[in-house]
Specification:
The chain contains seven helices and no strands. By secondary structure, the protein is an all-alpha fold. Helix 1 (2-22) packs across helix 3.
Length: 198
Amino acid sequence: MLDQKIRGLWNRAMSPIGRGLGRTGLSPNAVTLVGMLLQVAVAALIVDGRLAAAGVAGGVSALFDGFDGALARAQGTATRFGALLDSTTDRLTEALYLAPVAWLYGVSPDVVERDQPWVAAVAVAALVFSFLVSYVKARAEGLGFACKVGIAERAERIIIIVLGLLFDLVPVAICVLAAASAVTFVQRLMHVRKQSVA
């Protein structure tokens, strides 16, 4: 939803950054991998219970997710492998938010207030639904259907979890994320079904 509304504005804002990165000699795939390394740091911070720091690092990692595409456009070097790598690391990014949250709240809480196994269970559900949201879109588009619908595309999901970390509202954020991802999954299935019977 958000992606469709601000994609043009976002790409224009990223253009100068893409040109600047182009002068460094980095490849878009290298920028993608740097963003992935940042996300590993985010996961470590979550497991350690340093949620605000994880939120800040997650925001930086999200910016890197936009830098690789901007660099590819600036260099004219967008490739199908780069698109695949970007999509794959997007899924890993979500796993590196939600699996550490499940660990922190369900297996090894750093403080007694975080000993909430139900949060871990909801985090796992959110992870499953976020993967299904992305899978349905990829599979539908592979079959020739349009599937850019839903209240919680990747941008919204990342914003929800980053805000939850920054403000130490992870249980609330995880519930919102799981519910919104489940709704988006159903929206996408129904959207494709309508096209298939039209």
